[in-house]
Write a structure and sequence with these properties.
With 214 residues, the chain is α+β, with helices and mostly antiparallel strands. It has seven helices and ten strands. α4 runs parallel beside α5.
């Protein structure tokens, strides 16, 4: 390969990498149990990765025990990285609203308390406008107030490694239902918590992830 051809190839690869990077975006949402939100969105075409974590509080590098114990102000959240050429931000939010009960201000399903509340974190005015539009659509469909707040983006803290991809881990864990793999324990928890049943009741056929407990 000639020097010119090598140079053109390098330039093409650099341009492709820059384009790919420009199409990759992230957003942070809180939808109750972060295991469930992570599992839901990693099944969506165009989503590259979903990472469980914490956001919205005052404590730096919080632990799971601190967050669920209360007092830190953090919510369980998921940072979603997606390819904007394959799925839009508005579509991400449309799926999010229909995967939770956005009329519940006290937590989500069997998980109660501030750390399990819903929220959308936005990084700029365009994202805020899109989030407000999707919130208004959700209210119109449900015919009742949507209490999910739209908040300014803040520091995202990844959760401990053992929380990541919990829904597909094979390690064993002791539960009140006996010894199970983490993946099976997750499925049992999700079904017992009533997440899919209640989302299906609220949203009907518009619920995109209502079969994830099976």
């Amino acid at each position: 390969m000639s020097y010119l051809n090598r140079t053109l190839t390098a330039l093409s690869l650099a341009l492709a990498a820059t384009t790919a990077q420009a199409e990759t975006k992230t957003t942070v949402v809180a939808g109750g149990c972060f295991w469930c939100v992570e599992s839901d969105f990693e099944s969506v075409p165009g989503v590259i990765e979903a990472v469980s974590g914490y956001a919205g509080g005052t404590v730096k590098n919080p632990t799971y025990k601190q967050v669920v114990g209360g007092g830190t102000g953090h919510l369980e959240v998921v940072e979603i990285t997606y390819d904007d050429s394959m799925i839009s931000y508005s579509k991400i939010l449309n799926l999010f609203f229909r995967s939770v009960d956005p009329t519940d201000a006290g937590g989500q399903f069997c998980d109660r308390g501030d750390s399990y509340a819903t929220a959308i974190f936005v990084s700029d005015p365009a994202d805020r406008a899109a989030a407000e539009a999707e919130k208004a659509k959700a209210e119109a469909v449900l015919g009742k107030p949507v209490v999910t707040p739209i908040r300014d983006a803040v520091t995202f803290y990844p959760a401990e490694e053992y929380h990541q991809d919990y829904y597909k881990q094979t390690g064993l864990v002791v539960t009140r239902f006996g010894l199970k793999s983490k993946a099976n324990a997750y499925k049992t928890y999700r079904k017992a918590c009533g997440r899919d049943q209640q989302v299906k009741k609220l949203w009907g056929d518009a619920a995109p992830f209502a079969d994830h407990s099976s």
